[in-house]
TrEMBL record:
It comes from Ruminococcus flavefaciens. Its cofactor is Mg(2+). It comes from the Bacteria. InterPro entries: HAD-like_SerB, HAD-like_sf, HAD_sf. It catalyses: O-phospho-D-serine + H2O = D-serine + phosphate; O-phospho-L-serine + H2O = L-serine + phosphate. Belongs to the HAD-like hydrolase superfamily. SerB family. Keywords: Amino-acid biosynthesis, Hydrolase, Magnesium, Metal-binding, Serine biosynthesis. One of its GO terms (molecular function) is magnesium ion binding. This is phosphoserine phosphatase.
């Protein structure tokens, strides 16, 4: 048995949709959210700046409602199944806010294995963003050998630090910056999961 631990990006890696655009669709702010998300994925806007702007777009929607929407977002079933069956060795590393994703993390049995951005909530609304995760800094804290799985520009630092880095392009194109830092690219949920099982 290997000593690898598995670090998963959430949006478009575990989920079959980008979470923030999905929420913005409910409040008719999809075009501006999509433009920001796409520019960020391509590395044109720093993740932190973009994320704070995207949170601002969603500030009118209640935290409970967002949490419910996120918990119901469809998942890549084979990747999600790998996480559920190996949850002691899997971690979710996501820029999304802790208060938005807690329901989905419960569904995946990942409540205590999640690293995310954090926010304060007052009267069921985001009052302020406390911290925005830096995935590369987070990965430096792990001591075991790492397998990283992601799709976006902000997964590049995580990939550089990983012992084995995977890009998953089953939902959207793998970001060019990430492609330069990965060992393997997968474009189907089942093929990616099959490879992960071989690393156990």
């Amino acid at each position: 048995m290997s000593d690898y631990i598995f670090l998963f990006d959430m949006d478009s890696t575990i989920t079959r949709k980008e979470v923030l655009p999905e929420i913005s669709r409910r409040i008719n702010k999809l075009p501006e959210m999509r433009a920001l998300t796409e520019a960020t994925m391509r590395g044109e806007i720093p993740f932190k700046t973009s994320f704070l702007n995207r949170v601002k777009i969603l500030s009118d929607i209640s935290v409970k409602e967002v949490n419910k929407i996120v918990a119901e977002v469809p998942l890549n079933p084979m990747i999600a199944d790998f996480i559920k069956q190996n949850n002691e060795r899997c971690y979710v590393v996501t820029g999304n806010l802790d208060v938005w994703i807690s329901g989905l993390m419960r569904k995946l049995n990942m409540e205590n294995h999640t690293y995310s951005s954090k926010a304060d909530v007052v009267d069921d609304r985001i009052s302020k963003v406390v911290s925005v995760i830096d995935k590369e800094l987070m990965v430096r804290q792990f001591v075991q050998p790492i397998v990283s799985i992601g799709d976006g520009d902000n997964d590049s630092g995580m990939a550089r630090r990983a012992d084995i880095a995977l890009g998953f392009g089953g939902v959207r194109n793998i970001a060019p910056s990430l492609l330069r830092n990965i060992d393997y690219a997968f474009y189907q949920d089942d093929k990616c999961a099959e490879f992960l099982w071989k690393l156990l």
